[in-house]
Amino acid sequence: MGQDGKTETGIVPVVLSGGTGSRLWPMSRASFPKQLWALLSERSMLQETVLRGSSAGFAPPVIVCNEEHRFLIAEQLREVMVEKPSILLEPVGRNSAPAIAAAALLVAQTNPQAVLWMMPADAEIKNHHALQAVMEKAVDAARIGRIVTFGMTPTRPETGYGYIEKGEPLPGVDGAFVIRSFREKPTADVARGFVEDGNYFWNSGMFVFRADVLLEEMNKYAPKVLEHVKAAFEKRTTDLDFIRLDKEAFSQAPDISLDYAIAEKTDVSAVIPADLGWSDVGSWDALWDISNKDADNNVLIGDVLTEGAHGCYVRSEGMLTAVSGLDDVVVVVTSDAVLVTHKNQAQDVKKLVEQLKREGRSEAFTHQRCYRPWGFYEGLICNDRFQVKRIVVNPGGKLSLQKHFHRSEHWVVVAGVAVVTRDDEQLLLRENESVYLPQGCTHRLENPGKIPLTLIEVQSGAYLGEDDIIRIEDSYNRN
């Protein structure tokens, strides 16, 4: 499926990639959330999610994401050779109901009865064979007008998930049931009762439905959502390979999940219980639970040493990390933050992120390495009046033509070849060559070579914020 929403088959995977995964801080942050990380395999969670649909021979996927991640997501799809994806850009986050409404409107343009398989970008499914069998049942139920969700067979009295209570069998679809009720995240005692009862299942957040059925039910139960999303869709624009929804209209849509907006109200919902080896990978203890462990029941990733440690999750994204004499702890080390918590308290990491936000700390939102459509930069040294960064530009990459009012810059090439525009000059720099960019000059950096360009940037001035950039011309249509 391309930007016109045309489908080659009747089943369209729709991947929602709008979350930030704050319980997996300090790795997952708004600038680079958990679905973009390779947490369980050599591929990112987004890539694994998208490949579930392409491996089944379904239509090219629809990805709904925020504007900040659009180039990262496009590059990750290219890496796993996903062809003709449709990438819908949310100008603001409005939860899953508006997001899926936009996807349904896109698909319904050319095939109103196409079956959509909506799934979050950040969940793990181990049993792909069982998934295939469940999908066949879900598609059968969706084609007769049902909005189907998957109920995951609970393996423990989990308090971090919502639950679905199944009712009577659904006529005509073996293994499917009418939904009797949705239940919020329970207390421990209530969760134990759910597991013992046998009729309650974890709410996976995955849904299967026809585009026209979803839009009809939304018009009935969430008309304001549909009204504003439809307006945003009608005023959409294309931006390179992206579909940009109108910001003013989309911002007026209610902030509500599909569960609350439709699934809990409609009389055409259904659930298919399944044991898929599913996890929402929502916290560090959940990640420990589904990862491969050593003889001491530890999950160790990166440059890590342990002595007398048991049942731990220890991950280092760089420096040597040593853990001695501790049991059941989580230790995560990044370039700018260290998290240490007991596994039983892993759900409370979100509270730390909220505290960082209240204090205005950048670590709540961004990493030292910041990705851009042309490559990335990362901070090395930061002081009051100067800072040092490493900049890596992909082959063919080009920064915007820009200027700064409050700082000057000095660029030193350490690998590759650079073409530098400085006012009316154009300079070719090789390794160990440098250029000075005085405050206020118009400048641009390009990589004309076949290998990544790496340079060291030294900034100096009274103000060094990233918002001191006046873009004059940009190849990536950034404002």
UniProtKB/TrEMBL annotation:
| Annotated Nucleotidyl transferase domain residues | 13-296
Which reaction equations make up its catalytic activity?
A: alpha-D-mannose 1-phosphate + GTP + H(+) = GDP-alpha-D-mannose + diphosphate
Q: Which spans of this chain does the record mark as coiled coil?
A: none
Q: What is its EC number?
A: 2.7.7.13
Q: Which Pfam families match?
A: ManC_GMP_beta-helix, MannoseP_isomer, NTP_transferase
Any Gene Ontology biological process = polysaccharide biosynthetic process
Q: Which InterPro entries does this chain map to?
A: GMPP_N, Man1P_GuaTrfase/Man6P_Isoase, Man6P_isomerase-2_C, ManC/GMP-like_b-helix, Mannose-6P_isomerase_type2, NTP_transferase_dom, Nucleotide-diphossugar_trans, RmlC-like_jellyroll
Task: Specify whether Nucleotide-binding is a keyword of the entry.
Answer: yes
Into which family does the record put it? Belongs to the mannose-6-phosphate isomerase type 2 family.
Q: What is this protein called?
A: mannose-1-phosphate guanylyltransferase
